[in-house]
Amino acid sequence: MSTKEQVIHERERQNPNLVKLSVPFSQLKLDLLPFVPVLKVETAHSQTILGHVLKSKNFNEQGRQMFLTLPDGDQMSLKIYENKSANRKQAIVTLFHGLAGDHTSDYIQRSAQVAFDLGYSVCMVDHRGAGLAEGMAKKPYHSGRGEDASEVSFKLREMFPKKKQIFIGFSMSGSILLNLITRRYGQHLPDYCVVVNAPIDLLKASSHLIKGFSRLYDIRFYHNLKKLIAKADPRVYLPLVANSRLIDDVFTSKKSGFIDSFDYYEQCSTHKYLNQISVPTFVLTSKDDPFIAFEDYTTANWNDITHRTFIDHGGHMGYISKHKSKKYGIRWLDDYLHKVLVTIDSLST
Question: pTM, whole model, 2 decimals?
Fold first, then answer.
C-alpha cells in the first residue's frame, strides 16, 4: 500500500462517516456566479462594512432552544429548527458565529434561511458566554475551541442519529472548526464542513486587526467583549481604551490555560495543519480580507478533501455583488452557501 493510500485508509478508519468521492473535493464544480464588488473603491473595507450594515430579513421559523453543558460545566446554547417540509433532507446544518457575534447575527440568520429553504434542519450555536449563553460560562470561547464544536456534534448525533451533519463556521468559528476537523481539539466530527473567512495564523490576524483602518473594527470588538467580560468576571480590569490583543493577553489566554496571547495564538493557529483535514471541507475567503494574511492560504498545504474558493474583492464576510442573483440579490455569500449545500446534497444521495 502506498503512503497516500495509507493516509486515506487511516482517514476512513478514524471517520467512518466520511463520504467516498469519485474526484478530489478540490475539483468539484460549484457553478458560482462571477463576483464583481458593488463598489470598486477600497473593497477590503467597503465590502466588510457593507456586509455588516446592510440589513437582511430575520429567520422566523419556529424552533426550540436548549443549553448544552460542556465537560467543564460551562454551557453553550443551541437553537434547533427541525425541517418537516416535503423536501426535507436527512441532514442538519449547524451554524457557528464569529467573534462578538451570536445566533442573531445577520449572516447566521440569512444562512439559516438558505439552509431551511433547501430542506435542511438547522442548528444555531451560541458559544459559551455568548448570546443566550451569556453569563453561563466561566471560560471564554476562542479560536481553538474545537472541543466545544465536538460536543455539539456529539449531542446532535444523539438527537438525530440518522441525519448527516454539516458544520458552517464564520470567521473565528472557521478557525474553531479547522481545529476540530484537523483533530487537534475534539474528536466528534461532522460529515461536512464549510469555513468562511477563517483566520488561520492568529498572530498575523491579531496584528492586522490593530493596525490602520482595521483599528476601527478592533475598537468595536474590544468594547463588545469588554462588556461580556465585565459580566463574566467583574474582577478583570480592562481600560476604557485598548485593543483586542490585550483581552487575549489578560483574559482569553489566562482563562483558557495558555501562558499569554502569543502562546494562545501559536497553539490554536491552523495554517500548519491543514493537510490533516479529515472531512470534506469547503473553504471560502477573499484576497483582500483586512483581518487575514491571504498568503497563508496560498502557502498552506491543503489536502485533497478541501474545496477552495478565493475571491479577489470580498472583504471580511462582505461579498456584496454588483450583479444580483435571482434568489439572493446582491448577497453573493448566500448564493455560494446555496451552491455548496446543493452540491453536498448531490454527494450524499
Answer: 0.91
Q: How many Å apart are CA 26 and CA 283, to the nearest integer? A: 10
Strand partners, 310: 285
93 has which bridge partners?
122, 166
d(CA 183, CA 203): 21
**72 CB burial (10 A radius; 0-12, 13-18, 19+):** exposed
d(CA 344, CA 349): 9
CA nearest neighbour of 164 among 215, 207, 212, 120? 120
How deeply is 315 buried, as exposed, middle or buried, from its count of CB atoms within 10 A (0-12, 13-18, 19+)?
buried
d(CA 294, CA 174): 15
Which pLDDT tens digit goes with each residue over 15-69?
554 555 556 777 898 999 999 999 888 889 999 999 999 988 999 999 999 999 9
95 forms beta bridges with: 124, 168
Q: Distance between CA atoms of 162 and 166, rounded to whole angstroms?
A: 13
Identify which of 95, 7, 30 has the alpha carbon closest to the alpha carbon of residue 59: 95
